[in-house]
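Anyone? Bumping this.
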Amino acid sequence: MITAYLLWLYRSSTSHAPNWTKYLTCIISAMEKASHLSVIVDLSPTQWHLSAQTSNQYPLSIETFLSQLLAFLNAHIASKHENSLVVFGAFPGKSVLLYSSTELLSDDVPSLDANSYLPFKLVDSTVVQRIMNEFDAIGELDEEPSCALVGAVTKALCYINRITHPSSTTAGVAEDPSIVHDPRILILSVSPDLSSSYIPIMNAIFSAQKLKVTIDVCKVYGPDTVFLQQAAHLTNGSYIYLERRDALLQYLIMSFLSPTSIRKILAVPKQDKIDFRAACFCHKNIVDIGFVCSVCLSIFCQPLPVCST
Amino acid sequence: MPVQSLQNTDVIVPQHTPHPLLPFLQSQSQTTLTRLYQRPSSCLSVFRLLGPIERQLIMNLLWLESALSVATISAWVLPEGKDAYDSALAVMTGLHIAQNSAVKLALNSTFKSSLRQAITGGGSTGSFGVPTDKDGKRQSANIENLDAYALERWETILHYMVSSGQGQNPTKPSQGVLYLLQRSGLMNNAHGPALQITSSGFQFLLHSPHDQLWNLLLQYLHMAEERQMDLVEVLSFLFMLSTMDLGREYSTEPLSETQKAMLEDLRDYGLVWQRKTSSKRFSPTRLATTLTSSSPPLPSSHSTGGSHTADGTGAVALSSGAAQQGFIVLETNYRIYAYTDNPLQTAVLNLFITMKYRFPNLVVGMLTRESVRKALGNGISADQIISYLTTHAHPQMRKNNPLLPVTVQDQIRLWELERNRLKSAEGYLYKDFASQADYEYVLAYAKQLDVVLWENAGKRCFFGTLEGHANVRGFIERRTGSV
Amino acid sequence: MRAIKGVLLTCDSAVKQILLTMNEKDPFVIEDLDDYHLVIKADEEYRVRRELEAELEKNTYSLETN
């Protein structure tokens, strides 16, 4: 009977039920957990050449772009020691891993210097060096193949899948600090939509949803892309069309630096108009009104007697 | 369908528990802080110690040339986040990072330019430490050795503390460390010449290494103030260490006299390694390089340190949190199996369990009423015991939900409550009032003074504290005198 | 009106009953206020606490007794 009384005393003395406190600390710790950011940079030489033309209202050369991007990447690493970062480059016809905070990509670690923080320096030199290597490798081609954006997105998703589900058999619950919370992908796009990539992009979006990955999109140059708008919308990310291209860094930091838990307190801009049009499966055209197979839900731009899929 | 984010979206303002160093920094003058902010490494470290909202706000303001109007900024804040935003702003102004007037908000210009410099690199402050050239003749310390050194230093300190009460004679840490322990109130020599662990010392032992480290460093900072050391030098040296690369050697040449003097202390704590005391170079250990992060500052609590794989260039590799593995299995029958051969861990466990058997790699014990009461008597709280067991739980235990058996958790808390079944307070019982009005009049006065511990209108009496008695008596005397 | 110096004890009702039994042997209670409160003589507090502790210890059983 005394025990029962004490138990009551204990329940009433801890003013919240234990579950409640546990829940609260859960949220707090989620904010303090390391976050992961995968950045996908669209590096189409043609588009960047166009972007640097002085006829644009705000010309943006790839050099300026990269220096501002590197400052943004450093800001992400600066925010927390454990934050992880991966950078993929989407080059014409291939996608390349430019930097990864979990593995060393180049053998020559930059020499230490007293005025810079080593991890920052490492990101900067690795990313720049690898981009240069890739650009050098692109020979004189008559026709530039389209940028392998989807390939980069898929690689980023694979990477996130790997780090969020460590293969270790210990099957640690959320308490293991090495498990990354709140993974995000940021796509910096300059190329227009590629209608042939509609289906792979949609597939990537669905797997991102499944992995609870947020996809943010920054359209640095060129017309709005329908597919990326949908990607951001469907994964609760934000799509931003860069209007003032001279303020790229400020855009990046204000909209894309904060992990999703912070976005519940400090709002980030979001596009409210989204183009939901799909591309047809037969000619890969973006259609306003299409025909849908009643069995497999494939979309076509013209009626077919028998579904081709 | 929008993806459900990992957290629930309920309106709960997340409260970030501020880092223990921040209150200390806030107590410093603006000039001290501004001098500190002249170094990019210090800015970067302070930035990392801040909460997530503060960090985002700083970043938002960092690249702006002009001040932003407060109205613009509050437009970003969602209604649910108002409180969190306000407290973040208060922290920033308290640290003099942001200058907040009623209408404009801007970063401290020194802080702004230094943090910019930290992020973009360059400048000539040398605040990230001057590395030494590779010495061909002598091999520099590798990460494994540094880890072993840090671990050995740190465990010496803790082991000394834990065994001080048991009449054993472990290796004594250096005089400086002993003084620090005494100053911080973790140990005292109230009972004779030998130092004895205090109740806050017992609590200290159950904290995570990261908290322990900052706890001692804070004390060190307080001492530095008294020893007339330049606080800016001390702080910036600690921050410099925290941004250094593990496994490299740095030159002592550019350090100031104060900082050179600190090297000796930090060597004793295991933060810095030097080949010889006169050596012109030093290497930070993992204890130092993780000061501003939450990754484990010690490679592994197991003395079987060989299992730890040095992760290449430590700063680059993702901090492997798995390094610190749990070792405790707690069963519903109050039995504890601790897979450890580490004397320190055994000694810490011995604070609150009754040992039964010891094997080369396993200690079996039991949580009993006596053992827990002994711990409670030493000033350790039930929550501390539970959190220690939780953080050090064996991976096998992590499959359980809840992690620790509820019965055991409740019982530990009940044992704690059992000690406090009787509360007492000295004071005066006021009774036999002439009339109800009289009683209510005096009671109202006593309540105003906030000295009433118990009251009962039916019996027309109340109990007031000892401190309030003089006032209440005076009041009654004045009253009866005037009638 | 009277003011009496003493110590206010706050406890659960079980402990209060034990205290009352102890009081019969060797009086120390000044006033029995309600189910959870007692006022006792200030200089008796230490003795009362010690005796109560001993009384409570009689009623605890440990697995370790064998």
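Late reply, but here is one note on the structure posted above: The first helix of chain B runs from residue 21 to 26.
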